[in-house]
Specification:
The structure is a homodimer.
Chain A: E1 15-28, E2 31-37, E3 42-48, H1 54-62, E4 68-77, E5 85-96, H2 110-115, H3 117-120, H4 124-146, E6 150-151, E7 157-158, E8 170-173, E9 176-180, H5 185-195, E10 197-205, E11 218-227, H6 231-252, H7 254-259, E12 276-278, H8 279-288, H9 301-308, E13 315-318, E14 341-346, E15 351-358, H10 363-372, H11 381-388, E16 394-400, H12 401-409
Parallel strand pairs in A: 3-5, 6-10, 12-13
Antiparallel strand pairs in A: 1-2, 1-4, 2-3, 4-5, 7-9, 8-9, 10-11, 11-16, 13-14, 14-15, 15-16
Helix pairs in contact in A: 4-6, 4-12
Chain lengths: 429, 429
C-alpha cells in the first residue's frame, strides 16, 4: 500500500510502500541507510544486507543523489529519527537514476542557485519558505471570503498606465500598445458599486532597474477595496488582516519556521492595534535624531528603518504630503497639503509591506490631479465615470506577498519567497 | 447604526442606516419609493410624506439613477418584497447625485455594454455571474488546500515559449525578448520533487485572432500537477474536482443561479464517475454518424458537440493522436501513435473545460519531441533537467475558469464571466 511520509504515524508496525527522491545514502558493511524525501516529508530507511535480497542491496548501492526510488518497508517509531519514524527496508526499486546532481551541500553562489532554481526548490529552506508562502496565500483568500468580500480578477493587459509611467512593460496588442498592470486598484474600485467589498489577487509588474533585496520585476499583490470606508477603517482592516496572516503561519507552519530558524518571539505578539505615527510627526522625530529630511520629501529606506526601531509591531505612517503619493489619494480636509493614506512598515527592518489610502471621490479634484500629473485623461475616462455615477467614500490597500512572507519567515532576500523570481537580469528558468 | 442589506433579517423592527446606490425611484402623491442596492443586496424603501421632514422628501425627489444615498429607516418584514424586507424611511440624505446613467433598461448593443463594462458590472445578471466566479475560485483553493497541495505561483514573464509559438504576446525585458505565459505547467512540474502535489492559479495569455464566444486573450487557469500519478489517477482527480466546484456553486449561489435563470437540474447530478470515450472510439462514432473525420485529426467544436449530446455529464475523450497534442505528453505504451491524455468536455455544448495528460518522463523521448516540434532546445534545458535528476511519473491538467463558470451558470458568452474581458479588439476599460 502506497502512503506518504507525513502520514507514517498512522502505519506504525505496518509494511508500506513509499515513492520519492533520495537525498543521501551511506553504507557500513552490512547495514546501509538512505534518506528519502517524497514532498510531504523526509524519512530514513535502514537496509540490512541479511534482511533483503541481492537485487535490493545492489539497488541501494547504485543510488545517486536525487534518484527516484520506490521503497517497501516496515514503519518503526524512533524518537531519535528526524520526523520520529524510520523504515526497515524490505525491498527497494530504482525508478530513475539521477545524473550527478549540480547542487551540493557546499556554498554555491547565488547566481548558480538562481540558474538552477528548478532544482534549488528541493532544498529544505527553499521548501520551507515557499510552504509558508502557500499557507499565507490561502489565509489571504480565507480572510476575505469569510468577510464576504467578492474576488474580482483585474486585467493584466491594460490601455491605461497605472502609477509609474516610467517602469512599464509594453506589448503589441494587435497593433495597439498595451501595458502590463502595476496594480488592479482602479479596477476593483469599479466593482464596489456592484459588490461593496471586493479584492483582487494576482501578479503585478514593474520594469524597475533596481537590484535591491526588496525588488522583483514580477510580484504578487492582494488589493482589497471597501465601499463607505474611510482611512481609519482602512488601517483597522489592515492591522486585522496582517495579524491574521501571521497567526495562520504560526499555527500551520511551525515546522517550516523551525527549518528557517525563525525567532518566532519576534512575531507571536503581532495583534491589533498597531502603533501609528503621522508623516509630520515622523519627520519631526527624524530631524530630532539628526536625519536630513525636509517636510514634503518621501521617506527613504533608512528613514523607515530608524522609525521602526522603536517598535516591535508593524508601524503605520499616515497622511503623507500630496506630492509624494499617487494621484488617486483623497485630499486631507484638515490639511490639504497632505492626503489620507498610510504605509505599513514591518518591524526588524523589513520595511513597507502595505500602501493604502482613502480614494479621491470628488470628480473635479480627481480630474485636476490627473492633469497635474500629466496622465492621459482619455485612458482614465472610465475611472472618472465612477465619480460621475454615484460617487462614494471608499478606501483600500495593496499588500505585497513576497515582502510580507520574507518578514514572517525572517528571510533577507524576497527573491527566495517566490518560486521563480524575475529580476532585472533574470528571466530563466 | 450602519448595517448592510443582506443582514436586515437580524434587525426587524429596528431603525437602521443603509448606504448604497439608487436603482429606481417612483412617487405617487404622498407616498414615494426607492430601490436601494448596497452591494450585498437590494431593498425597497418607502417614504411617506407625512412621516418625514421636507428635506428628506425633497432629497427623494432629486434622486437620479445610481445616485449614492444614506437612508435611515425602520426594517419591516414583508414577504411580498424582493428579499423579504422593506424599509420605512425616516430620513434620507443624498451622498452624491449621479449624472444621467448611460445604461438603461432597454436593449443595448454588446459593444456599448463592453465599452461601459465598469458600469455594466452593476447589472443584476453580471453581478450574479461574477459572484459565482468568485465562489468557484474560493472552491478551487479550498479543494487543493484540503488535499495538501502546495500552491506554486508560476512566472508570467518567461524566456521559453510554451505551447503555441504563433500566439504569444512579447515584451522587451531590459533588452531581451520575454513572452507572456500561456501555461504554468512546465514550472509546476519542477515543484513536484519539492512538494509532491502542487498547483498554480493565475492569468494566462493567448494572442489569438479568434472572435468566438469561447475565446479571451487573457483568461484564468488552475493547473494542478501530481507526482506518481498516471493518466487514470489524473482523470479521477478531474472528475472529483469538477464535481466539487459544481456542488459549491449550487450550495452557496442558489440566489445567483436563480437570477441567471439557470436550470439547475442540468447540473445537480454532476458527480463521479464521468463517462469516458477513447479518441479512437470517438472517431468511429463520428464516422458512423456521417461526420467527415479521419483518425489523426484533432476534433473540432462540432465533433465535440455531437459526442457530448449523448451524455448529461461531462465527457472524457482520452488518448489522442500524438500529432494533435503538445510535445510534453507521454507516449502511450499500448499504442505509440497516441499519447496518455484527456480532454474533458462539458455537456450542453459548452465544450472543453479541461485538458490533461500524463507527462513524458523519458529524457530521450522528450528531447526528441522538442526537436520534432522545432522548439528552441536551449529554452527547455531546465525542463529536461527534471528528467535528468530524478525523473518520476506525473500527471496534471489545466481547467479554464471562465469556460467552467459559463457552463455552471448557463451563460452563452464567456466574456461575461470575467470582470474586464480582453478580446482581440478590446483593451478598454
Amino acid at each position: 500500500m502506497s502512503v506518504v511520509i507525513k502520514d507514517l504515524s498512522a502505519h506504525i508496525g505496518e509494511s508500506v510502500a513509499l515513492e520519492g527522491w533520495v537525498e543521501t545514502t551511506r553504507s557500513h558493511g552490512k547495514v546501509a541507510f538512505l534518506i528519502l524525501r517524497d514532498g510531504t516529508g523526509v524519512v530514513q530507511g535502514v537496509v540490512l544486507k541479511k534482511a533483503v535480497d541481492d537485487a535490493t542491496w545492489e539497488a541501494h548501492g547504485s543510488l545517486t543523489q536525487e534518484s527516484t526510488a520506490r521503497v517497501v518497508g516496515r514503519v518503526k517509531q524512533d524518537d531519535r529519527a528526524p520526523g520520529g519514524f524510520e523504515v526497515e527496508v524490505e525491498s527497494l526499486e530504482v525508478m530513475a537514476l539521477a545524473e550527478e546532481y549540480p547542487i551540493q551541500p557546499k556554498e554555491h553562489g547565488v547566481d548558480f542557485l538562481l540558474d538552477h532554481r528548478h532544482l534549488w526548490l528541493r532544498s529544505s529552506q527553499q521548501r520551507a519558505g515557499l510552504k509558508v508562502r502557500s499557507e499565507v496565500q490561502q489565509a489571504i483568500h480565507d480572510f476575505f471570503y469569510r468577510r464576504d468580500f467578492t474576488r474580482i480578477d483585474t486585467p493584466i493587459l491594460t490601455g491605461s498606465i497605472g502609477e509609474h509611467a516610467g517602469t512599464l512593460f509594453e506589448t503589441d496588442y494587435f497593433g495597439d500598445p498595451a501595458y502590463m498592470a502595476q496594480t488592479g486598484q482602479l479596477y476593483v474600485e469599479a466593482a464596489c458599486p456592484a459588490f461593496r467589498n471586493v479584492y483582487c489577487f494576482g501578479p503585478t509588474f514593474r520594469a524597475e532597474k533596481s537590484k535591491t533585496r526588496r525588488h522583483l520585476t514580477e510580484f504578487w499583490m492582494v488589493e482589497p477595496e471597501v465601499a463607505f470606508a474611510d482611512s481609519e477603517d482602512n488601517m483597522r482592516l489592515q492591522e486585522e488582516f496582517v495579524s491574521y496572516l501571521v497567526e495562520r503561519a504560526l499555527e500551520n507552519c511551525a515546522e517550516e519556521l523551525k527549518v528557517l530558524e525563525r525567532d518566532t518571539s519576534k512575531i507571536d505578539h503581532v495583534k491589533p492595534p498597531f502603533p501609528r505615527l503621522s508623516y509630520t510627526d515622523a519627520v519631526a522625530r527624524l530631524t530630532e535624531r539628526g536625519h536630513d529630511v525636509t517636510w514634503g520629501d518621501d521617506l527613504g529606506a533608512s528613514d523607515e528603518a530608524v522609525l521602526t526601531e522603536d517598535y516591535d509591531l508593524p508601524l503605520f505612517i499616515y497622511n503623507y504630503p500630496k506630492e509624494a503619493k499617487a494621484f488617486y489619494m483623497k485630499e486631507n480636509p484638515d490639511d490639504p497639503r497632505t492626503v489620507l493614506c498610510d504605509d505599513l512598515l514591518a518591524p526588524e527592518g523589513y520595511g513597507e509591506i502595505i500602501g493604502g489610502s482613502q480614494r479621491e471621490d470628488d470628480l473635479e479634484r480627481l480630474r485636476e490631479r490627473i492633469r497635474e500629473e500629466k496622465l492621459p485623461e482619455e485612458a482614465y475616462a472610465w475611472y472618472l465615470d465612477l465619480r460621475r455615477y454615484g460617487s462614494f467614500p471608499h478606501s483600500g490597500f495593496g499588500l505585497g506577498v513576497e515582502r510580507t512572507v520574507a518578514w514572517i519567515t525572517g528571510r533577507h532576500h524576497i527573491r527566495e519567497l517566490i518560486p521563480f523570481p524575475r529580476l532585472m537580469n533574470r528571466l530563466y528558468p
